[in-house]
Design a protein that fits this description.
The protein is mostly helical and 137 residues long. The chain has seven helices and no strands. It is rod-shaped and about 70 Å long.
């Protein structure tokens, strides 16, 4: 009689006797093994794809960036390009292209241009930058 009591206890600990092993219980409660890994992998790929697509669209529009903070850098570069066209109407298209390339490839040149407020100083500085690039003002 003592042995039938212990077998009843074992049966009641497992439930109604229809469930399988403990690994089957884990599978039912947490989903198929690996499903969680696949969901995480999918999320990682989505993040990578978004970052890659953003990078490609930015690079296609503005060329390769050599400085950090690309999103902020794109805005600053766009502002500088618009500003140099407005503030420096005496520059030829070739000179503007040289300056835009300098802005694109050198953050210090870009930020210096944006920081110079005096017209005569800015014009002299631009002349110096163009001369260093092999162009004259």
């Amino acid at each position: 009689m003592g042995s039938s009591k212990s077998s009843k206890r074992k049966q009641s600990a497992l439930g109604d006797g229809t469930s399988g092993t403990s690994s089957d219980k884990r599978w039912k409660s947490s989903g198929p093994p690996g499903a969680l890994v696949l969901v995480g992998l999918r999320q990682s790929l989505d993040v990578f794809n978004d970052s890659f697509n953003h990078s490609m669209s930015t690079n296609a529009r503005t060329g390769s960036r050599k400085y950090e903070g690309e999103a902020a850098g794109t805005k600053i570069w766009d502002d500088a390009v618009a500003l140099v066209q407005k503030r420096e109407p005496y520059l030829t298209n070739d000179q503007l292209i040289v300056l835009m390339d300098l802005f694109l490839n050198s953050t210090p040149i870009l930020t210096t241009y944006l920081g110079i407020e005096k017209d005569d100083l800015r014009k002299a500085w631009l002349g110096n930058q163009l001369a260093q690039a092999g162009h004259s003002l």
